[in-house]
Amino acid sequence: MTKKIVIIMQVLFIIALPIVLIFTDVQLSTFDLDYYQKKYEEYNIMRKTGIEKDDLMYITEELLDYLRGDREGIKIWANVNGEKEQIFESREIAHLYDVKELFSKGFLTRNISLVILFLSFIFIIIYNRKSLYKTVIISCLIPLGIMLVMGILLATDFYKYFTYFHLILFDNDLWLLDPKTDILIQMYPLSFFNSIAYKIITMFLIELLAILTFGLILKTNRFIKKLNINR
């Protein structure tokens, strides 16, 4: 019975680890204000939107607070081309509500996975420590392969797979905004999402490689100890 439970815990560990990492990377990247400021300047968003940088950062802070669940609504007023107006219209607000719900589910999934990861790790340590290195290595190799394939696909046609992403995650077309009139898409053009996607993927790959290295070290140490015992 214990052996079966160990296998279950190993599977849970293998599933939970990449989920915790990728969702955490998404959170860190999405809520990094310095990154937004850098990209606003790089893509000259001030000129495209008619909104000064200070106002853009104010809008961004309010928007991120909304996505975190720290504020109820997303009606924001700021100066656009020198005139005070509401930044997001009804369609943009409806889409942002969907995005907020997506983040809420993502946070919950990450937190549950974190608990599962911790419990499965402790269980493996207690009942089958020898298998830890295998579990760690497998939990890294599978998502590494997936991310490498995804990175290649995104490099070949980012817009195509960005569209698939939205079709999978949203059950409506509210995400289809007009870049001529909708400030939300003016603030966050396709190039912004392209950049942040590769930032997340890069962070994820670095973390996986670091953990994979740890697994290989565990394997090497176990091999050395085995050789010493045989001697």
From TrEMBL:
The keyword Transport does not apply. It comes from the Bacteria. This is Integral membrane protein. InterPro entries: Lit. NCBIfam families: integ_TIGR01906. The keyword RNA-binding does not apply. Pfam families: Lit (PF07314). Keywords: Membrane, Transmembrane, Transmembrane helix. The chain crosses the membrane at residues 5-24, 107-128, 135-155, 196-218.
